[in-house]
Amino acid sequence: MNDGIALALRTLHRGERNLAGELARIADRHRAEHEVHHVATDLAGWSREHVRRIVATAADREVDLTGPPEAGEASDAVFAPHGNRSIAETADALDPGLLLLRDLRELHLSATANSLHWEMLAQVAQAAKDPALLSLASACHPQTLRQMRWTNTMIKTMSPQVLTSL
């Protein structure tokens, strides 16, 4: 098994799992915003399906996604998350509109990171001539791009209203 492919699968597994969780939390936190609640719930389902497909693909390649990387395996620290996204401690102190903007921004950044990792997986799949990996990336990446477009559209729509009311 190629260490680079294992690294890409581990990174995507973690990223999609985290995005699914973020989407579910934000759907719950912003229940009053019906579009946010319903769309985020649907998009979380997409990421959960991505996780399921990544796990199946990794298992076919004897890559265990249940624990930390094995000794001697390439470290995935190079693909660590884009920053500290612990927002629970300050959520109650923020204006609800600002909290929603911040949540949408974090979702967008997470989806963007996943999109880049899907692209890397597609590139290594092409280089390795691995049609199953390429099929996985080709099936999942467009949905990740749709997640990004939705968060971007919501930010564009909500920013003027929220930021001019401060």
Defining key terms:
mainly alpha, 5 helices
Give structural notes:
With 166 residues, the protein is mostly helical. It has 5 helices and no strands. The longest helix is centred in the C-terminal third of the chain and has 34 residues, at 131-164. The radius of gyration is 17 Å and the shape is elongated.
Tally of strands = 0
Major sheet summary line: none
Spans of at least 5 consecutive residues with low confidence: 70-78, 83-89
Structural shape: elongated
End-to-end separation: 54 Å
Oligomeric form: single chain
> Could you give the order of the helices and strands?
HHHHH
Number of helices: 5
Q: How helix-rich are the residues, as a percent range?
A: over 70%
Sum this structure up briefly.
Helix content is 75%, strand content 0%. The protein has 166 residues and is mainly alpha-helical.
Which secondary structure elements does this structure contain, and how are they paired or packed?
Blueprint: H1 3-29, H2 34-60, H3 88-91, H4 96-127, H5 131-164
Helix pairs in contact: 1-2, 1-4, 2-5, 4-5
